[in-house]
Write a structure and sequence with these properties.
This protein is an alpha+beta fold and 404 residues long. It contains 12 helices and 14 strands. 31% of the residues lie in helices and 27% in strands. The radius of gyration is 32 Å and the shape is elongated.
């Protein structure tokens, strides 16, 4: 250690009472080995300063460095009800302590002094790791405990729990995600019978119900890989989703029994499968993924349909590129532009008078209703134009979401 630094330390101790931790922390870069408190002790010996200052008399930390075990007790108590594998400690230090600390750095032109905040966080983490048998994870902890030293309280930041799965929707009339009542914006009014909701239930709520119960989470969010219309079924192997559970108390839940329980509770409405634990990154993956969709479409025409004509049109649609201007029905929430989409396959299943049933395989993001009706020529080419008879979708179901 340079003699200049020792002189600085000596001068400093003349001006202020400092505990070993605070003294060591200020000059920690000058000494290689030991904790801040050991470093402080070493400096004191070097400058023949015999009087040891207890933390409670320390001008800088006012006893804070002595309270680590007290904070640990508080944190353990707050964490009691939570399941987690990784954690991180954070702290909010009294502002006047931080100001005094910064003032010393400037006065002594210290570079590399450690903020007291970091010492508190690190020392607590070091003791808690073996005690809790959990790991400190800096970028991605399951739970973060933040100690507010001025008020002696611990607040928790709990990472969401993510569950991947696929869902089938077996009943019409259920939207995918929650919609707030448009009159009260979710606050609850006469119109929505004080539920705050536009629809009685949603795929989201059905999928989340048992998961929320098991995890004791406070809220949830369903991230689907696209969405089907409210009145469309979702069949086949189902649509990929990631369910996000906010503030879960339990994380190590049994996904096999969650799947079974959910499927038996909502037997004729929804069905989930392939559950596994996931992460936030997967939301972006399934949102961005361009899965091909296979639909079963029942159309209703303005006059009786000719089967031969329909089959000819269907054949001409293999691999056809169509251009769709943003449909009128979604214009309020989607940007107005022309989207180019492929029809990969079109097969006529049955024709009966003005009703026909067909299977359509299309590129992700194709507006099927508009492809059938033409949407006032906003979709080109379209089925109505090709067969020469105006028609519209009567029933639309997603039979499969392909290729994940
Ligand atoms: Zn101190
Ligand atoms: Zn309302």
């Amino acid at each position: 250690m340079k003699s200049h630094t020792l002189n600085q330390a000596k001068q400093l101790l003349h001006e202020h009472n400092l505990c070993d931790s605070c003294l060591g922390r200020l000059f920690r870069k000058e000494i290689r080995e030991g904790s801040n408190s050991e470093k402080g002790q070493w400096i004191r010996t070097q400058i023949h300063e015999k009087q040891k200052i207890p933390a409670k008399d320390c001008w800088l930390c006012e006893g804070l460095t002595d309270e680590i075990h007290h904070f640990i007790g508080l944190i353990i108590k707050t964490l009691e009800q939570y399941e987690f594998d990784t954690f991180l400690i954070g702290s909010k230090i009294d502002e006047d302590i931080q100001e005094k600390e910064q003032q010393l750095w400037i006065q002594l032109t210290l570079e590399g002094a450690e903020p007291i905040k970091m010492e508190i966080n690190r020392e607590i983490g070091k003791i808690l790791e073996p005690q809790l048998k959990k790991t400190v994870d800096i970028p991605n902890p399951d739970i973060m405990a933040i100690i507010d030293t001025a008020y002696d309280v611990v607040t928790l930041q709990i990472s969401s729990l993510f569950i991947y799965g696929r869902y089938r929707k077996l009943q019409r009339g259920i939207p995918q995600t929650k919609w707030p009542c448009q009159i009260c914006q979710g606050k609850g009014c006469k119109k929505c019978q004080y539920t705050g909701k536009l629809y009685e239930t949603t795929v989201e709520e059905l999928i989340a119900k048992n998961a929320l119960k098991l995890t004791q989470g406070t809220d949830e969010s369903l991230h689907g890989s696209g969405r089907e219309d409210i009145d469309a079924l979702m069949l086949g192997t189902g649509r990929p989703f990631v369910l996000e559970i906010k503030n879960p108390k339990k994380r190590n839940i049994d996904l096999v029994s969650l799947e079974k329980e959910t499927n038996s509770t909502f037997k004729n409405s929804i069905e989930i499968s392939c559950l596994r634990f996931s992460n936030r990154e997967e939301i972006a993956r399934i949102k961005a993924a361009e899965f091909r969709k296979i639909y079963r479409v029942t159309i209703e025409a303005g006059q009786p349909l000719n089967k031969e004509k329909l089959i000819k049109v269907a054949q001409s649609l293999q691999g056809q590129l169509i251009k769709q201007f943003t449909p009128t029905r979604v214009a309020h929430r989607r940007a107005n532009k022309i989207r180019e989409r492929h029809i990969y396959n079109c097969t006529i299943e049955s024709v009966d008078g003005i009703i026909a049933s067909l299977t359509l395989e299309t590129e992700s993001g194709t507006y099927i209703k508009e492809f059938v009706s033409g949407d006032n020529d906003k979709t080109q080419p379209n089925l109505s134009e090709l067969i020469g008879i105006p028609c519209k979708v009567k029933e639309l179901d997603v039979i499969d979401v392909k290729g994940e």
